[in-house]
Amino acid sequence: MGAPSSRSSGEGLAVSPRVAVYTRISRDDEGDGLGVARQREDCERLVDLRGWAVAKVYQDNDVSAYKRNVRRPEFELMLSDLADGLIDGVVSYDLDRLARQPKDLERLIDLYDERRRRVFATVTNDVNLGTADGRTMARVMVAFANKSSHDASRRIQRKHLELARQGKSSGGPAPYGWQKDGRTVDPVAAGHIRAAQKDLLAGVRIGTIRTDWQRRGLGHPREGTTRLPHHLVERMLTNPRLCGYRTYRGEVLLDDEGRPVIGAWEPINTVEEWEAVCAVVAERKQKYPGRSLARKYLLSGIARCGLCHAKIRGQVNRRRKEGSKAARFSYQCSVVNGGCGKVGRAGEAVDEFVISLVLAEQRERAMATTVEEVESWPNAAELIDVESDIAALTQAAKAREITVSTLLQLLPDLERQRDELKLERGRFSKARQQTAALSVGTLEDFLSLPIERQQALVLHSLSAVLIHPAGRGSRKFDPSLIEPVWR
């Protein structure tokens, strides 16, 4: 629409200013929008009393105006429409509904400086941004509103820290895996989390787990949620809350003796299980930063050319005609990937042969394995000693037996040793749990698994598969030309 005019029309009738009604509330826990609805009703009544007309209602429900990292989409749209002349002014319930940060107020004031005939009004006070006195009063009011928000934020943070130190929750909906009270484990949801963690240890990507959960409607922390972001699934599977640890601002909270604060809820994982999952995720990010781990063919990156030893990847057989018995895909040494281009083999036959070898080897290993004691992490005593030293130093500083300067000189090395030992413990737990996760019974069980887990099972037995050239002419599949390289 074109820019509205407040000048008289050709018939001599004054055109009423067309204004925006802006409503906002910081928290709407119920999600029913009653707060912004009441603001809108009062603003529209004020617009009628002034003889103006409502051009559009801009509503930011459940959006903070104080937090700097929060963007208010409707507020930004209103400023844009005001700058473009699509509206002649703004009406809001209160000035603090519009701005709690001085920079937001100044952006609005700049627009009123550009065109002095714009109108402004609030229900609760008589502030006019069109005048110098009104702008000064608005700046003072926003400054006090900002200080009030800052003080409230500081009190809330202090309260949350106190609750965290006591191992209590800070409120809000219960995370996925627990019932509504936030304390009792939901056995069904917890089962899905444990199954996903087992898949993760067995080589399945988080993206594959996310797709499966999305299809089955799992993992949504709030009813009505349809989108399940990748980072949310990763957080659900690696959350320290799973093993009972209390966090504060994204970090595991430690008590005065340097030990993790335990939350007042039932854990889903043991510490060892949680550390193993975290170790898998961290190692994948370090090994494949920014890369997709998706695979389409079982032996892609595992098979190698028997002539040049370059990695062979699967590719669609584009010459295959519909209805023919030719292979749907093949493993081909490619010049593009640095290979010789002289070796290729039908993919299905190679996959079937390798799978049969792997399953047979794993069955033999299972039959030969005797019942042994579960191996424990060999450096557990060393970690206990380091944590005891940290606690003793901290207590000595509190009792003024040593100075803070001495504490700060001795503490960093001990903390570094503790963190390295915990990381080592996580890797140890990961390796032990991965061995347990990498087990499958029949061929049907194997084929029902995601491709990443199938590859992990193959790599558990084989380090590579060499595919040797078959010579010229059409030949039947010859298993002697497929050479497994056993671990």
What are its keywords?
487 residues; Hect, E3 ligase catalytic domain fold; three-stranded mixed sheet
Write a concise synopsis of the structure shown.
This protein has 14 helices and twelve strands. A hairpin with a 2-residue loop joins strand 5 and strand 6 (251-252). The chain has helices spanning 34-50, 73-83, 95-98, 102-114, 132-165, 187-201, 206-216, 230-238, 271-287, 347-368, 380-398, 404-437, 443-447, 451-461, and strands at residues 18-25, 53-61, 89-92, 119-122, 247-248, 251-252, 303-305, 313-316, 329-332, 344-346, 462-467, 482-486.
The CATH topology of the domain at 18-149 corresponds to Rossmann fold
Q: Could you name the ranges where pLDDT drops below 50 across 5 or more consecutive residues?
A: 1-13, 370-374
What percent of the residues sit in helical stretches (DSSP H or I)? 40-55%
End-to-end distance: 72 Å
Number of helices: 14
Described by the principal axes of the CA atoms, the overall outline is extended
CA gyration radius, whole angstroms = 33 Å
Q: What is the CATH architecture descriptor of the domain at 18-149?
A: 3-Layer(aba) Sandwich
Class from helix and strand fractions? alpha/beta
* Mean of all residue-level pLDDT scores: 81
Q: How many strands?
A: 12
According to CATH, the homologous superfamily of the domain at 18-149 is Resolvase, N-terminal catalytic domain
Helix-strand sequence: EHEHEHHEHHHHEEHEEEEHHHHHEE
Strand residue percentage: 5-15%
